[in-house]
Amino acid sequence: ILEEKCCGKLERITLPVFQPSTPDPAPASDQVQRLPSEGSGDAEKLKEPSTAQSHTPGDTSLSLALSLGQSTDSLGPYGDGDGAENQVQPKRPSLIDRQPSTVEYLPGMMHSACPKGLLPKFSSWSLLKLGSAKSYNCHTGLEQPSFLPGSSFLLPWDLVIRSRSEEDAGLMEPLDGGSSSWPAPNKSLVGKRGSAGGLGRGRRRDDMARVFVGFEYEDSRGRRFISSGPDKIVKALGPGGAKDPATRVLNTDMPLYVPSPSQGRGLKPHFAQLARLFIVVPDAPLEITLNPQVQPGPPPCPIFHPEQTEVVLPADGFWVLRFPYSYATERGPCFPPKENQPLSNYKVLRGILRATTANPVPQ
């Protein structure tokens, strides 16, 4: 309902969801067996084949999810031979390469322990483009409401761009004695020691790209802030923006819940939950790959991820990833931590962003 008023016209990266090919799609039957009975006729019908589940390829009573889930584990390689002959046979195609089901959907959300070949009816994640990279001003921060004072600044992430400057072109030419192997007379190489501008100052500006990253937390009262570490809030007092680099938040597991900086008068602690991830990708030969993985509870809690595990963010964009508010498997929700539970068990795994240069290989 609110999308038309706020973000309906924004560019987005659409995550794959279940696309039905029948008028009455149903949840995967082997998942329904784990759920409490809802008294619906469809659920009862789906439970009937469970009495004759065999792991033979020709058993038509298997649901698509169950047959896909066991195909690579039980059937193994092609062929009926034994010993070394089987080992050289190619294995069955990866489940990742197969088309997802159009008759059965995944109850719950995508996670590391759910059956392959299934998609949920809707995505609990959202990836929007708020504007170009220039639409974020590092001196003013995020111009959005409800942020704590000084805590709306994204963290800088400086990356080396290995572009072919004039110096690189001269050094990479083969020294075969030809005229192109040596610089012209009375012409100094760019960046050479002793030349104008010094060794690295001008070249460093050309070869560096600055990405901005922000892990945003929000508590139950709507207070928002960017975190500069697992236990630290961004606090920019001057006009220069945030000083802490983003490498700390990118190279560590970030908590899914942190104590709210504004505790109320009651004795019960208030938590702020990781709600959004902001990424400003500059207009540079650079590829930023997004790969969020969330473990919303102690083991054996599975790891949740979007329906597309890796998403490449195009250059020159101000992107925001909205995390799910709640995490649920086919067995039910993963509840937030209680007062006596350690928050370290609820986390976003490190490696959520990966950077690669998109420069072509020099000829």
Automatic annotation (TrEMBL):
Residues 16-98, 172-203 are annotated as: Disordered. The keyword Metal-binding does not apply. Residues 50-74 have a biased composition (Polar residues). Keywords: Nonsense-mediated mRNA decay. It comes from the Eukaryota. It holds the Pfam family Smg8_Smg9. InterPro entries: SMG8-like. Belongs to the SMG8 family. Involved in nonsense-mediated decay (NMD) of mRNAs containing premature stop codons. PANTHER family: AMPLIFIED IN BREAST CANCER 2-RELATED (PTHR13091), NONSENSE-MEDIATED MRNA DECAY FACTOR SMG8 (PTHR13091:SF0). This is Nonsense-mediated mRNA decay factor SMG8. It comes from Goodea atripinnis. The gene is SMG8.
